[in-house]
Amino acid sequence: MSYLWCMLPEKLRKKLAKRIADDQLRSLPAQTPGIDFYSNDYLGFARSERIRRAAERYAKRRAGSNLNGATGSRLISGHSPLAAQVEKRLTSHHGAEAGLLFNSGYDANLGLFSAVPQRGDTILYDALIHASIRDGIRLSLARSAKFKHDDYRDLESKLKRATGHVYIAVESLYSMDGDSPDLNRLVDLTERYRASLIVDEAHATGVLGKKGMGLVQDVERSDAVFARIHTFGKAIGAHGAIVLGTQGLVDFLLNFAHPFIYSTALPPHSLGTILAAYDELVTGLERAELVRNIDCFRKGVQQFELEAHSKNNRTPIQIFEAQYPNSCRVVAEALAKSGFLIKRIQPPTAARERLRICLHSFNSEAEIEALLQTISQACRS
């Protein structure tokens, strides 16, 4: 035990020691070469030279200055024509009345959930909701309760007992399970109980729906959703997020959402990257390649008889759950030795240990087949 570790207060040392005992201690991984099946760069935009060049042109020509940084919050010196252009473009693309940029999806959820629900209101959230939403709820003055994942009977039972105005929080694509909610049923419930539905589209942005618009637009329920959060750190390959809703919601967030008010704005290059990525998104080429690879993966799961381990998701996030203790570790080690980059997810990040396999537009069919073959062999060894 290092001297600096010993300087921690006893309660903190005990919490770290428990993580170590439970084999759940997090640490920063070393950068290793390999075949990417673990990043959120679903469309390959983060590595696109074409997007990089276009982003530089946007930043230089349309930012209104040659600044490298935003210089301050948008309410002081950080607002720019380029930021306004991004909000206008994304609001139009996603079919919303208005939108407000945040520095990350985490900031957006923290700002939205800490500011909007008021004392006496109730927030009902899916049990598998992202940690950023949970943290925003913790900062809120409203009451809160979780409902079982995708369990609409459980949600309705809690809606019947909820007080004040009710906000329902879900994700359109769950990052650790790869599944999506039934938005039509959710909208029906929100309308029946006069609640407000908030949908985090973080992992669906650029992936689900026509032109990567997301699940809400794909099922044509935009007008029934109170707020949507689209983030740019996944398929868009950039950074930042936007909250979409009515102009009234945007005005409220601009006045009361602390992560927006007190943060330096996104720099010009980040804004340019978002615009360049959305230009690329409209072509649909990368999305078509991604869909082809998802089909290839699902066929391979059947071919190698891995259905018992894999949820039947038609999304870039594929989950492998082992049937026996330590099986995930064994499979993960076999994959690492074969040069595959895959993340083993352990509690508390997910309820059960699993391998999170991320598919991309740039993965080849040969890589996918080799991946599944390695998993199959490891399971049978």
Short description:
This protein is 43% helix and 14% strand. By secondary structure, the chain is α/β, with parallel strands linked by helices. Helix 5 (105-115) packs parallel to helix 6.
Can you walk me through this structure?
With 381 residues, the chain is an alpha/beta fold. The protein folds into two domains: 235 residues, Type I PLP-dependent aspartate aminotransferase-like (Major domain) (Aspartate Aminotransferase, domain 2, 3-Layer(aba) Sandwich), CATH 3.40.640; 96 residues, Alpha-Beta Complex (Aspartate Aminotransferase, domain 1). 43% of the residues lie in helices and 14% in strands. It is built from 15 helices and twelve strands. A seven-stranded mixed beta sheet has the order 2-8-7-6-5-3-4, sandwiched between helices. Strands 9-12-11 form a three-stranded antiparallel beta sheet, covered by helices on one side. Strands 1-10 form a two-stranded parallel ribbon. Strand 5, helix 8 and strand 6 form a beta-alpha-beta unit. Helix 4 runs parallel beside helix 12, helix 13 packs parallel to helix 15 and helix 14 crosses helix 15. The longest helix has 19 residues.
